[in-house]
Amino acid sequence: MKEGAKALAGIVLAILLLWWVLRDTDPQQLRRAIAGASLGMLILGGVLNLGHNVFRVWRWRALLAPVREGLPFRPLFAAVVVGYLTTWLVPGRLGELVRPALLSARENVPLGPCLGTVLSDRLLDGMTIVLLFAAGTLVTRLPGDAAPHVAAIRASALLLTGVMAGALAVLVAAASARERLSAWLARRSGSIRWIGRSVLSVSQGTEAMRSPALLVRIVALSVASWLTIALGTWIGIAAAGVSVPFGAVLILLPLLALGVALPTPGGAGGYHAAMVFGLTKIFEVPRDLAVAAGILMHLAVTVPVIVLGLLLLRTERIAWGDLIAAARQVRALGAS
Predict the structure, then answer these.
(1) Largest alpha-carbon pair distance within the chain?
(2) Termini Cα distance of the chain
């Protein structure tokens, strides 16, 4: 019942957001905008958005290097794509748990450190988005009315960055003092011991941050990954007739990331609302074109992942039931 309630809430939220997106849109103009889009450019945008996962896999392998050196590309890539597939199709956003649990089961990587690398991965994503947003505000000329919206996005992004950087620093510090903390926790019981063991286990996924060479590689791959996403998005919205400079997409990244993070099925509604708000309120793009860009780019982002993810389920012989069971292993992490 709890999972059903979450799924229903996500559907209701998606419907409300899509209603807001479409409420002031002329249906005929929207159809013309979609029909007039460049299919070739849209496909290229989708390919680039899917292709960013190559950089993501390389970064994940670098984060995992202190735990397991030289992991092969294929199981890492399969875990990333199937994780996204699960996030799009299964209520509860289990994809972030499926990814480490699946790799742990298939490559015998310890689950705690594997989960820690995924957490580090997401924290790095957030900080990279803010870095590129700042770069976008420096190189992009904004309309006069956009300043308040950009200031609000900047303040929110900086606040979230501080939270993410603090969480990452705590995990790195815990990894550095793991032996002392383990001895202290051994004398404790109940929830303190459970939470402490969980944090220590996860903190092993931040070991790579203590190596300057690995840290440089991880940061470079983070920037390359999100620049690829930005380039694919820029080409994709241009396919719908939206003409904005590349720096504008860097400014949109925090909004789009927030839209995807909302717990709606397949990111529906959240991604569209973020795209329409950013294009219309910040860059004064006509609403019909902004809505068309949101619809087409959402399809370009989700459809390739769903198709490839379903194909990987077949070729890698992964069952849906195994994915859900693997994700639920994380709940017992602190007891081990």
Answers:
(1) 69
(2) 28
CA distance 122 to 214: 17
Phi then psi dihedrals of residue 159, to 5 deg? -65, -45
Determine the 3-state secondary structure of 130 from DSSP.
helix
Domain ranges of the chain: 2-14+29-335
Residue-wise pLDDT for 259-274, tens only, equals: 888 888 888 899 999 9
CA distance 108 to 92: 26
Model-wide pTM > 0.90: no
Helix, strand, coil shares of the chain, percent, nearest 5, are 85, 0, 15
Q: Are 238 and 264 in contact (CB under 8 A)?
A: no
Calpha distance 293→272 (Å, rounded) = 9
pLDDT tens track for 286-334: 999 999 999 999 999 999 999 999 999 889 888 777 676 666 666 555 4
- 293-297: long-range pairs with CB below 8 Å, 24+: 293/236, 293/237, 293/240, 293/241, 293/242, 294/21, 295/34, 296/34, 296/37, 296/42, 296/236, 296/237, 296/239, 296/240, 297/42, 297/45, 297/233, 297/236, 297/237, 297/240, 297/271
Residue in the structure block whose two tokens are 């995992």: 64
